[in-house]
Amino acid sequence: MKTVEHTMAKKGAVLKEIFQVLDSFNDDEVDKFVSIILGDYLKRFQRGEPPRKVLCYGAGRMGLSTRAFAMRLNHLGIPAYFFGDTYIPPFTKDDIVVLVSNSGETRTVVSIANAVTAKCQAKIIAITANPNSTLAKYADHIVTFKTCNGGLNSADDPSKINSIQPMTTLTEQSLLIFFDIVVLELIRAGNIDIGRCKAFHSNIE
């Protein structure tokens, strides 16, 4: 019985931590994030043109959350790719790159931001806990959130969340949910028919 009670207490603590991170996102920053991705989505759709392409990237477990976001964008009919895949098409200044880094100093993420700026000038959206980071300096728009202590590229700080979970597990969990909330906003703001999503889902499973 004590084991069950202990497990339930941990569930409550983890959920409370996730809510703390989600509550730290700025609504105005998120709204602009949504509007940038949508662009003139409806007009393009009516003309039979594809929407802007979106390239996503995050390192490690952050990357898993970001890859899931790219997959869901495709289900909405928005062509999205994850950096490192071999089928990424050319990007232009009309396209969007979403880069995720807790510290904003992750070497691979910053190097991609530098390459985007130098080669195609696509619009960069940085999702980071550090608005003063190197990644943020490359960004056209920044979405910030409150992170937890224990990161590899950032120092612990009293202003950050003290999580019971190891390293930045809390951030990775919260970003997955955050991206799903962004998808809901994209559906609402873009008046996207959820029924159409099935047409973009893989039929080879």
Give your account of this protein's structure.
The protein is of the alpha/beta class and 205 residues long. The protein has one domain (23-190): 3-Layer(aba) Sandwich (Rossmann fold). Helices cover 47% and strands 12% of the residues. The chain contains seven helices and five strands, in the order αααβαββαβαβα. Strands 2-1-3-4-5 form a five-stranded parallel beta sheet, with helices on both faces. Strand 3, helix 5 and strand 4 form a beta-alpha-beta unit. The protein is globular and about 55 Å long. The model has no long low-confidence stretch (mean pLDDT 88).
Major sheet: arrangement of strands: 2-1-3-4-5
State the CATH class. Answer: Alpha Beta
Low-confidence region ranges:
none
CATH architecture: 3-Layer(aba) Sandwich
What do the pLDDT scores average to? 88
